[in-house]
Design goal:
Immunoglobulin-like; five-stranded mixed β-sheet
Length: 294
């Protein structure tokens, strides 16, 4: 006959946090270039500065001209095939868009020998930095009062990350200027909280990532409904907070150094059923502890 199983309970305590993000958009612009002006074999202006995704409209002001992408060297043209309007007379116009940064030279295929050349300089977009909270995970649950370490990664996207500012709800936790970026909040009370990381780069742009977490008051751990489903197993229920982590341990004599962890789990509900499928020791004591916040 199996010996009686005594249920014994203990509780431990501690806590942590969570995150989210944001983009920018821009509108394409148009630059105008006059192709020849009367008898002047030149582009006006010869150099045009635009941004990525802008477009250039060449408008003919003279006859027998083209706008052809490529270079001229040693009196020889070297078209690169990006665009070619063909030779046209006024009135005529030709449009080309520029989706990538760089310098794009062009010439008139008829009058290049007269120095009728030009260039379009396309500046790289001024992008905001990127930032992501890497710890804690969105929707994480912590036991109150929670001491939470918020960690984030960030990159400048064309600039240099100057700092990452951390907030809990609307309260600032301070700035971190060196990677890995982090901040700590202490004693967070029960409730829903929003953790935010705001990265700034050297071009003056910012980006935000936020996550939501929950902090709960731990419910007392109560063990109940002991049962022996089989000759080699023992089962019981214990109360818990969904989202918090618990450890179940077993001992044969309640000695402090004789507790063997059997299972660590994340509670999915307010009541958890545990089954020891190797309940062969006799006598045996069981305890359930709330693990510290990660």
């Amino acid at each position: 006959m199996k010996g009686m199983r005594y249920l014994y309970r203990t509780v431990f305590v501690s806590a942590i946090f969570a995150m989210s993000g944001s983009p920018i958009t821009g509108l394409a612009a148009t630059a105008n270039v006059t192709v020849g002006m009367g008898l002047n074999n030149a582009f006006f202006p010869a150099t045009t500065n635009i941004a990525v995704n802008d477009r250039v409209i060449w408008t003919w002001g003279g006859n027998f001209h083209s706008t052809t992408s490529g270079t001229v060297s040693g009196g020889v043209t070297h078209p690169d095939g990006l665009w070619d309007s063909g030779v046209n007379n006024t009135p005529h116009s030709f449009t080309n868009s520029f989706p990538t940064p760089g310098s794009f030279p062009f010439y008139c295929s008829v009058h290049f020998g007269s120095g009728m050349t030009g260039a379009v300089n396309v500046a790289a977009p001024n992008l905001p930095p990127s930032v992501a909270i890497t710890n804690p995970a969105p929707g994480a649950v912590f036991a109150a009062p929670a001491n939470v370490t918020i960690q984030a990664s960030a990159s400048g996207n064309g600039g240099t990350v100057t700092n990452v500012e951390f907030l809990v709800d609307s309260t600032g936790l301070g700035d971190d200027t060196t990677a890995p970026y982090s901040a700590v909040t202490n004693g967070l009370a029960a409730g829903s909280h929003t953790l935010s990381a705001i990265a700034a780069n050297s071009t003056g742009l910012t980006a935000t990532n936020s996550v939501s977490i929950s902090v709960v008051n731990p419910t007392p751990i109560l063990l109940s409904a002991p049962a022996s489903p089989s000759s080699a197993s023992f089962q019981f229920n214990f109360t818990a907070n969904a989202g918090l982590r618990y450890v179940v341990a077993r001992s044969t004599d309640l000695t402090a150094n004789n507790w063997i962890p059997l299972a660590t789990n994340l509670a999915g509900s307010s009541s958890v059923t545990f089954t020891d499928i190797n309940a062969t020791v006799n006598p045996a004591y069981y305890r359930v502890g709330l693990l510290p916040n990660p």
